[in-house]
Amino acid sequence: KYGFVFFDCKLIAKDSITKVFLGRPWRSFAKTVFINTEMGNHILPEGWNPWKGDAMFPDKEKTVYYAESGSKGEGGNVSKRVSWSHQLSKKELKNYTIEKIFGDWNPVPY
User: Fold this and answer.
1) How many domains, the chain?
2) Domain assignment of residue 88, given as a range
3) Which of 25, 48, 88, 109 has its CA 20 to 30 A from that of 59?
4) Contacts 24+ apart (CB under 8 A), 26-29
5) Which has the closest alpha carbon to 50: 76, 16, 27, 77?
6) What pTM value is reported for the model?
7) Is residue 13 part of a domain?
């Protein structure tokens, strides 16, 4: 349901790495969300890439769900993100809690 969800992360890279996407789907219906993430200047302004040229799964940008909320840092400016990405509303953001994502499963042993 949620795909990959990143909370309070810091995306960094070596100085020689200058062009990185937040994600590009290999298949249709991919889901990735970044919440309160500091993004370095290696993150490209468009943020996401549809990985064109895949004859088996064309037009993936029509089915993927790539979203952000609270992105910051040099790569966190969302004004030039691709049109098919999303900025979570306050209401949508409330669905992204550890409890809602994992339910009663706790990956941390007691």
Assistant:
1) 1
2) 4-102
3) 88
4) 26/51, 26/54, 26/57, 27/57, 27/60, 28/57, 28/60, 28/63, 28/64, 29/63, 29/64, 29/65
5) 27
6) 0.91
7) yes
